[in-house]
Amino acid sequence: MKTIEVFLDESGDMQRGMPMNVSGLVVISPSEEERDRFHNRVYNQLKEKDCLAGVCDHGGSHWNAVSLPERFLHKRVAPEDLYAHWANILGAASEVANVAASNNVEIGASSLRFPTSSAKPCSASNLVQDVLLDRPYSERVKDVLELLFFETPWLQAHLSAEDGCLVSVNLPTRAVATDASGLDAQAELLALRCNWGILENDAWESRDRQTNAPQLCANILSPSDGIDILSALVSRRHPAVGNRVKFERCCCCKLVA
């Protein structure tokens, strides 16, 4: 059965006056076996060239469980290293394209930009919890998936294939922070956990890296939240999904090659 994999990532924060970009790749393979072969070949070839990608450089202590490659492309580099860094990224992309072509795998890319005016209001009782819940982000992810699956002719042609397809969706988790000066941090964290179901390990006190000011942080979209996003997507367009589309998984994860 044909497989369709969606990988998304994000940047920007509408709650702080910046537009948000949600971008990603769609990888379409002829079968599960071809998909696995493609990913293994990509991993091995990029590893040989030290072009694996790592998680965001400023991960906190709660990321200790993430297994990192010994050498990988960093998210941030010094200004004098930008051109060499960009050349490495282009080289990695070229390697992936070559492997895809030799394995009859199709790759598509998308990038959607949302202005600050598109932010949907949250319903938390105060601004601190509004920021930490980061609802504009989770809503934009739903919008992007809906546009990809139901408004993109290239992808629609594969989804409607007579022999069916197996779909998996990989969404990025996201950490947000807000100033906690003058706040009862423990009370705010307790409210997040009791009123909004945020897990204890997904909300914590921290310090701003530049100013050392106290702040509250929260992980947005835990691994299981992908199911809720997928359910919302399917409920919006249920007749259009059809019976031939099967979902293998939908999870939120830290995207490490």
Backbone structural class: alpha/beta
Which percent bin holds the helix content? 25-40%
Low-confidence stretches: 57-63
User: What order do the helices and strands follow?
Assistant: EEHHEHHHEEHEEHHE
Major sheet size, sense and barrel closure: 5 strands, mixed
Shape: globular
Please work out how many helical segments DSSP would assign.
8
Radius of gyration: 20 Å
Q: Which strand-content bin applies to the residues?
A: 15-25%
Note the gap between the termini. Answer: 24 Å
In the sheet with the most strands, the strands line up as: 3-2-1-4-8
How many structural domains are formed by the residues? 1
Mean pLDDT: 80
* Total strands: 8
